[in-house]
Amino acid sequence: MNVVIIEDEKVSADHLKLLLEEINPSIKVVLNLHSVQESIDALSNGIEADLLFVDIHLSDGNSFEIFASIENTIPIIFTTAFDNYAIQAFKQNSIDYLLKPIQFNDLKAALEKFNRLNKTENLIPIIETIAKNYQNQPTQFKSRFLVKKGQLMDSIEVGAIHHFEIKDSLSFLVNTKSIRYTLDYTLDELENLLDPKLFFRINRKTIIHFQSIQKIATYFNGRLVITSDYIETDNCIVSRERVAEFKKWLDQ
Question: Which of 96-105, 172-181, 229-238 is the least confident region?
């Protein structure tokens, strides 16, 4: 069986590939795609594959955009690092979805489900329903966050947020007065809760509000560096793989 992995994180793609080979050595990963646009181009040109493994959140957008843009005939198993409202839009219609980090038994069960459905059902209407449900899903972004500082609690509007950051394995919300609050959300989860017109994840540690950007300059190795109050210099660097999308975000 030939499979294609659509995943922008090399570690996750390699992990999935190893699990597939362990479950069935005859499974061959023929292609690893890394972005929405790369996947649209490849699928439009035709790919010889029996099954797609597709990460929901890619570096340049949401993978549902792929299947809303093209006519795909290859069955899909979705992967994701979080289980939020987007999952509910297609949970009843997808072949399967796997939460990261993907576990051996979960992957094996998903492949068995695929083999069973592939023998008895036409899977193309299922894929079309997934894309349709995503397009019809109302966009809901958080407008405020409930935070705690000592014994006090407060609700902070997104307009009063300067940035989000990771430090010492903890997530923090930093407001426009430089007050820091710990959060239970990961940055991966926050990316899907925040309005992408207002917030951008510039690197692994920082999500910045558009209004918090003071200056932008070129940096080493094709990167950019942002001048912004309350953010440490190392956390103000736009990682190289995010530069193109960051420029597009600034120019929308």
Answer: 96-105
- 34, 36, 42, 46: CA torsion to nearest 10: 130
**In which order are the strands placed within the sheet that holds 180-183?**
180-183, 170-175, 161-167, 206-209, 199-201
Distance CA 26, CA 116 (A): 18
Residue 54: strand pairing partners: 6, 78
The model's pTM: 0.54
Cα 249 to its chain centre, rounded Å, is 16
Q: What is the pLDDT of residue 89?
A: 38
Per-residue pLDDT of 60-105, as tens digits, reads: 777 878 877 888 878 888 887 765 534 543 543 467 778 878 899 9
Domains annotated for the chain, with CATH where assigned, are 2-136 (3.40.50.2300), 144-250 (2.40.50.40)
